[in-house]
Please model this.
Amino acid sequence: MQAVSDFYKTLQPRLREFRLSFYLLNRNRLQRISLVVILLLVLVAVFAPLIAPYPEDASTGTHPEDKLLPPSPAHWFGTDELGRDLFSRVIFGTRISLATALIAVGLAMLIGVPLGAIAGGVGGGTDEAIMRTTDVFLSFPPLLLSIAIAAFLGPSLRNAMIAIAISWWPWYTRIIRSMAVSIRERQFVRAARAIGTPRRRIIFGHILPNTMAPVIVQASMDIGGVILTIAALSFLGLGAQPPTPEWGLLISSSRTYFLEAWWYSTFPGIAIFVTVLVFNLLGDGVREVLDPRTRKF
Model:
């Protein structure tokens, strides 16, 4: 019982902080709406096979006799040039876009966060080498660098995710490094160093956990941008390949039929717009919650 009581006491501050963060995030109407929309998008992605009226149209199903039908009760978003239900393909595209964005951001963090912690925690020549390499990557616009890497690796959704991760990791390195440089001079880090704590444990056990708040903010804001970048790569033919129902690829396929089938490009475009918008709103809310300088009580 004493162990349970002690655990609860240590958990109480975290619970209070979580309740405060949720209150701050939930009190803004736009952010509240964005949370609801994101939850709906996640549910749509998870249950896409159950929601889509024609799940086979997301892969190999074709119906040439129904090609380019306008929106109707049978096909809410109309059909494409092969007669496939566009609503079903947009639904499955939600799963692809969210999954690829999360994986790409996760890979970028996996590369950038440890490098930033090492650069800021070790300093000296190691710091200089890592940060100069980071500056080289930052000298190129992320989209342009992603296009170049994806073109070199070859057109596929996996290579597009790798290209985006390689283009975006320097931002996380710079954020973590700037925080680590400040934290390594604090008293608790000096005390750990004085008692002989190994440098690796100091970096990953003391410095890194105290630098994650800005990384979470950056990641929440990057998801929308990564979704847009994946759509751009697929639009250019460097990302998802047919018959994958990725939003950018749907818009690319609709270019030929833009004048006669307005719905073909409109609904995937709306899906991209709404998803990017709500994730950007969520990122602003997370920044307001986690950054004490922007909290408004």
User: Anything to note?
Assistant: Confidence is low (pLDDT under 50) at residues 1-12. The radius of gyration is 23 Å.
